[in-house]
Amino acid sequence: MKDINKKQHLLNILFIISVVALQSILSIRGTHLKFYLGLVVTPIVAGIMCYRFKFVELALHNTTKMLNILSGICSLFSLYYLAYYFLTINSWTSNSLKLLVKGSSTAYVMAVAIISGWAIFLLFSYFFSTLKDPVVKFVKSITRYEYFYLIVVVVIFTAVTFVIYSQTSVFYKPIYKNEVLDWDVVYTTDSPYFIATDVYTNVKAYANDIRQPFFAIFALPFTYTAVVLSKLLFFIPNSYVIALIAVQAFVLALTVLMLTRLMKLNKITKRFFMAMIFICYPFMLFSILLEQYVYSLFYLILFIYVCLNYQNQRLKDLVYLGATGSLLTTGILFPLLASSKAPKKSIKEIAFTACKFFSLIFIFALIPIYPEAPSVVNAYKKFTGYGLTFINKLLQYINFVAISFLRPEAGVNNTTFEFASYQQTAVKSLNILGVIIIALTIVSFIVNRRRMFAKISFFWAIFSFIVLCAFGWGTGENGLLLYSLYFAWAFICLIFMLVDKFFSNKSVSKIAILSTVMIVLLYFNVKEVMQLVRFGIKYYPR
Length: 542
Prior knowledge:
Layout (H helix, E strand, L loop, with lengths): L1 H24 L6 H20 L3 H6 L4 H24 L3 H10 L4 H10 L1 H25 L2 H22 L9 E2 L2 E2 L10 H7 L17 H18 L6 H25 L3 H10 L4 H5 L7 H17 L3 H14 L16 H21 L9 H7 L10 H14 L6 E4 L7 E4 L7 H16 L4 H19 L13 H19 L5 H32 L3
Antiparallel strand pairs: 1-2, 3-4
């Protein structure tokens, strides 16, 4: 027993040392004070994790040989990227190291990266071992039709993206006057900037700010798949970007499968839902355009799925960190963390999850993004629609609801910026389709009010109103389309639950209505995407 305790104590000490190394090599943002604060606090946090909450033991529990290999491979990729970003990003820490060693600092950086390897391995091991049982159960539940669906979605959107990207660079690297345009070329998206700074592997990328502090951390398992694919497909132009699109399409398709299980639709309605959701404009657009919101949506739906199907608090905490860390606003769903109706126990569980959140902040050297929060808030104030009337925000919001299904009115804009961009036209009138969708959403909630998922979906629809209309986020630049993927699922799901409620499985009327809607959406949405592609070919040819 003493030998086991000594071994565990050694593993704990190694973890603490490794975490300090990880925090050090990730300190490429912030001031000297924040760096030294991290060096003091991080080992304390790591010690509490080890000796109070048994993190190392939990990370190595319920693991398998295959998961250890997977964690090891992901750790090796991480070591490479940690060293790469520390050496290539200009920061006071990297510059100080170069002055200290009076020459090449590569060997020293690699040494620190290797020391951090144990912590990285344990973090991946904790992630994979926690998700192992629910993932295995979910995979076993996938039908042949659903496997076919996953393959078709990935193949279609990867192939379409390859063809589009071979003709225009507008979606990933638009160039104007020999400079890459980082954002606002295609609607208000930032895809070129995300690719240029590689927000998918760079934990400290500036886009991974207070809004999505853990985005790269929880995207890494998917991103490394894209990295491997890109190496295998090295002969294809833009292989990394295309691989990211393929993985993104897979993630979206997985999200759809989780939604079908949450809605519990009958067979015919379920198949219509699976087909139609990728015809809806947000899903169609973000299947050919790289966006952080894809992973934000995935972890959001995964969190809801886990909360409604499992009572494992460790599992719920992990996916909540992924959901909230991928987009902070998802944190509003914290009541779902509570496994008990007893207030004291619920508060304790939620507080414990919050402690885990802040532990990650220190471990990954993310302290600088919080002291910078006031400047971030001021920088983004213009996006809140400051100066717009409530009526203007309301009209934009109702139009946004319609975009959940049908493409917006948009076209080439040569006046807002010096360069040509493709933007939504200003919303000046009431969108009738948006009003109808809102009405149907309310009716669906009323008739499905006893179902927990219907309650969550309706709450999410209300939350979208609070964020986008009451608060006005995105209205200042008429850019609500950017947030459509994150919120659209609630409206789409509620309407399909309404259809499922009022029509029998093989109802001719249901099949006729849904088929007609699909054809209309397919026609207008594909036509809009083609117009967008023609814009790209004309102004930003490859």
